[in-house]
Amino acid sequence: MVVGLLFLLGVPACSTWLITRISQVKCDSYSLSPLITSLFASFPLEANIRQTLQLLREQIVASLRSPLVQVAFLFLFFTCTFLGDEPKQGDAKQLDLGNDVILEVVYIPPGKFMMGSTAKEKEWATGIEGGAQAGTVREQYEGDPRSMKVSKGFWMGRTEVTMGQFRRFVDATGYVTDAEKTLGWTQCFNHKWDRYYRGSKIENPWEQRKDKSWRDPGFGIPMRENYPVVCVSYQDMKNFCRWITASQRKAGLLHDGLEFRLPTESEWAYASRGGSQESHYFWWGNDLLEGKGRLNISAVDFLPGRDTIWPLANAPWSDGFAFLSPVDHYGEKGRNGFGLADMCGGVWEFVLDQFDPTGGHEEIYYEDRQQLSVSSPVCRGGNYFDVPGNARCAVRLGIASVSYSDSRDGFRICIGVIKKTVPVPRTK
User: What is the pairing mode between strands 396-398 and 377-380?
Assistant: First the structure.
């Protein structure tokens, strides 16, 4: 189809060039190329040919002065300029959010992938190397391996949305997150927690805080603009996407059939594997040691006094960051086959779907298919605090509500076909 279109547009373009050249030449044998000159010289009707060529030139030049013809050529020019070819894997675009804030997206082509995990993978995840808690139901949420496909290509953020990008949204709109509302709160790390399942007086390292939000997640360290934004809810994320959609569409940079949104669970699962159709534990394969320099995980064990508490605290895949690392900190080594950074570890990433404990779906899954509503969204990919067994491509969890936020949770955007959802009432 593209080749045919190029041919259709190329013929008039080439003709225009040729016509221009013809209109500029004098119809005598000396102004033409030596080859044509020799041909004319050997042809007995040279004078008649010159006369015919002169007449043809005059007719063509006259037609070019026609407004109708000029409009047609302009139409073809702009069609050729703005239609362009279909995007391909590896293509990247930088979106200007204003005030020198940039958000980069990469193109993910359609394709097949494996959703779920094998029994062997689940056993590894709960073993000594994976470190996940045995006897929980988390691994059951993944479902058995099954082949799925993403039928339409889409663009996805190379990284999670950052503090700086989210701040640009808040500054432009005056938006107040769910955690910042009068009755709001967010889940944060409890700095009084001293041990992990070792008889601690405080068993849970997480606590609800009313005085914390995305502006200050309670890490006790300065927050940088290139950290992934956390302590934002599903509702906050969707409103961020609506803002970009509206601003880009107003600027004439977004097609009406597309929108900025959270990825569907199928899109995220496909993108996380980087184009592989195999059921690997991580996007690079099954070898955990190859994760060194690729992911942000188990960083909390490097806080003062905690480096000897957990036996795997000094494992070669631990990156040494206390909590978050900057997005795309690991460069090319931290990017998968699609060029996406931080798809394992870092922060849990929300997707558009309703959580189904039996496993993910090929098409977007709603709690109420009539209302197209979601009350308990899915998050994927693990987080900086967790163990490797909980930071695999197949890992998935359900979130308590659309207003819930946590200092381990973030998101990345995609640009794709519109997925209709009914707005959920905001908490006050």
Answer: antiparallel
Which structural domain range is residue 31 located in?
2-83
Q: What is the 3-state secondary structure (H, E, C) of 118-185?
A: CHHHHHHHCCCCCCCCCCCCHHHHHCCCEEEEECCCEEEECCCCEHHHHHHHHHHHCCCCHHHCCCCC
Average pLDDT over residues 182-186: 97
Whole-number CA gyration radius for the chain? 29
Q: Helix, strand, or coil here: 364? A: coil
CB-CB contact of 276 with 392 (8 Å): no
Helical pair 163-173 and 234-250, crossing angle rounded to 10 deg: 70
The tokens describing 227, both together, are 């950290």
Rounded Cα–Cα distance for residues 134 and 390 (Å): 11
Structure tokens at 15: 């003709």
Longest dimension (CA), the chain: 110
Nearest 5°: CA angle at 424, between 227 and 177? 35
Q: Are residue 78 and residue 125 in the same domain, yes or no?
A: no
> What tens digit of pLDDT does each residue of 23-39 get?
443 333 323 333 333 33
Say yes or no: 296 and 362 in one domain. yes
In what order do the strands lie in the sheet containing 396-398? Answer: 396-398, 377-380, 348-354, 409-410
123, 63: one domain: no
* Domain count across the chain: 2
The three-state secondary structure class of 5 is helix
Tell me: do 50 and 175 sit in the same domain. no
User: Which of 189-193, 205-209, 387-391 shows the lowest mean pLDDT across its residues?
Assistant: 189-193
pLDDT of residue 276 exceeding 80 = yes
Question: Residues 212, 279: one domain?
Answer: yes
What is the DSSP pairing of strand 258-261 with strand 414-417?
antiparallel
Contact 395, 138 (CB under 8 A): yes
